[in-house]
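The protein record minuted underneath.
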Amino acid sequence: MNRQELINQIKEKQSFLCVGLDTDINKIPQCIIDEAKEKDGEDYIFRAICEFNALIIDATAPYCVAYKPNLAFYEAYGVDGILAFEATIDYLKEEYPNHFIIADAKRGDIGNTSKMYAKTFFEEYDVDALTVAPYMGEDSVTPFLGYDNKWVILLALTSNKGSHDFQLTEDTNGERLFEKVLKTSQQWGNDENMMYVVGATQGRMFEDIRKVAPTHFLLVPGVGAQGGSLQEVCKYGMTKDCGLLVNSSRGIIYASNGEDFAEVAAQKAKELQEQMAEEIKKRM
């Protein structure tokens, strides 16, 4: 999906919501587990993940423009988990082809290794975007940028507590590490193929981000369960083209652990979409 297609989807749906598919067997409603075990016995993992994901996707698709499965939650279950990840991607492509798909894998290694990671996600899985760690520099990132209509989402300023350990450290000129990442990486890609991860809990730091990257899309985790403010993110981070994909995972997919989990997920997604529509109306 190219930039204009993504913008069109945001305008059409009045939403810039990304639903994170952080699917944890220990948090899936018991009704899904029981049904999967009844059909497959102890080999229930694949079916349970796929069924849960499909029901969450069906319930939330009207209110979001993107999905972000986090690879850690699939790789943790070995072959069954990877097969469930593939099946989820296939389901999205078949049933919801206009939704943007982000593989949250945080890859990044020496050039020839990154080249193979790029092949995995952009050719084999054919997702739209991949999260990438920039720590190893240009040759670890550029292999991901050689694909048409595919996106690198580079870690810039994250929402976790430990982000302060490195990302906010300053050099002798007062430039913080995240600012250096933003400035330097724009020599490798552009706002047509590169986004940045900026945590919602960073608040007014979005002003500083926009000084360096005024037009790039930002993937913003941390709204909801992690306490980030959607209104604050929009106030300081939204552009004339929106420029935001705001992710919510636990706050939507685990809002209920009962048989009504899909309906409650839909309601939570709808509530966020309605808030986003108000922000779009005010700022775009």
About this structure: The CA atoms of residues 55 and 187 lie 41 Å apart. The chain has 13 helices and eight strands. The radius of gyration is 18 Å.
